[in-house]
Amino acid sequence: MKDPFEAVQTINFLDIGCSGQIDAKWSSLFCLLSYIGFDPNSEECVRLNKKTHPYQTTQYLPFAISGEAGAQTLYKTKSIYCYSLLRPNSKWLNRFAFGNLFKEVGTEPVQCTTLDILAQEQNLKADIIKIDTQGVELPILKQGGLLLENTFCIEAETAFVEDYVGETTYSQLDEFLRAKGFIMMDLEIHRASRDNPLALHGKHQPIWCQSLWLYDFIGNSKPVAQEQALKYLKICQALDFFDYGCELARYFHQIGVLEAESLRYLEDPKNWIQGKLLLSKFGHHLLGWLPEKVSRRSLQKLQHLALYGHTC
């Protein structure tokens, strides 16, 4: 029986607030990803574009993305990973052991743009959006309607409280994405200890989280093209949402974009699971050291071996 996953040629992945290689949970998709990362530092983009990557294609673009276009202030902090277009909420942060990471060390003017502007100017497409922008995730997504229209998966890092002055929090993001037709499928909560002698004992307050959202085609009765439908099923497989993938497959068959033979294939649990067994996190780290073309070719062969017992 023909594997419908094999028809997927590429998956468009946007990394907003990129900071190195993406999480290993995406590893089974690496060789399919058309990856675009955004960094406001043009020199850093040049450096990153010269590096070896395991993705099908890789491009880093020198844009600062915000909820509005124009000149804004970038607040620099002791940790480069805490830089933000919002000022750190020092009174709050200094109560915690990690507060020193947010200590302001300077500011820098930056020219910002929006996702909608980039979608038009750069012809951007996104099956998956990963966003981690230190408090401005919601304003950015609100000005990304052109992209969200055809986005299936969103991974967002947001805080439960205002670590930055004026930060939009998880509860606000939740309301916005549910209104857009997405359903929250996973939530990884991060806690922090206060800066006192009991920091290493007991329970600690949830401060931020990584949430993962998938579009609810069934609940929204939304049509979809066959090429996109197969991409979305592949993403479900990669993220281990097998039951939701099967539910989607039945819906896609119902609306006429998935053949009966493909549906039978996708109703067999082993066809969701077996393609992921061979490639471990360790294996992907090893492949990351190889030249990009060799690494990508090796990933494709390993995935085919996992599925069929022989290489292409």
Please give the number of β-strands: 10
Q: Output the radius of gyration.
A: 21 Å
Predict the CATH topology of the domain at 4-192 and 203-229: Rossmann fold
Q: Specify the number of helices.
A: 13
What profile does the largest beta sheet have?
Answer: 7 strands, mixed
On the 0-100 scale, what is the average pLDDT? 88
Brief overview:
The chain has 13 helices and ten strands.
Descriptive account of the structure:
With 312 residues, the chain is α/β, with parallel strands linked by helices. The protein has a domain at 4-192 and 203-229: Rossmann fold, CATH 3.40.50. It is built from 13 helices and 10 strands. The protein has helices at 42-50, 90-93, 115-121, 137-142, 145-148, 170-179, 217-220, 226-238, 242-254, 260-266, 270-273, 281-287, 292-308, and strands at residues 11-16, 33-38, 57-61, 64-65, 70-77, 104-113, 128-131, 153-159, 182-192, 205-215. Helix 8 runs antiparallel to helix 9. It starts with 10 loop residues before the first strand and ends with a helix.
Topology summary:
Blueprint: E1 11-16, E2 33-38, H1 42-50, E3 57-61, E4 64-65, E5 70-77, H2 90-93, E6 104-113, H3 115-121, E7 128-131, H4 137-142, H5 145-148, E8 153-159, H6 170-179, E9 182-192, E10 205-215, H7 217-220, H8 226-238, H9 242-254, H10 260-266, H11 270-273, H12 281-287, H13 292-308
Parallel strand pairs: 1-2, 1-7, 2-3, 4-6, 7-8
Antiparallel strand pairs: 5-6, 8-10, 9-10
Helix pairs in contact: 8-9
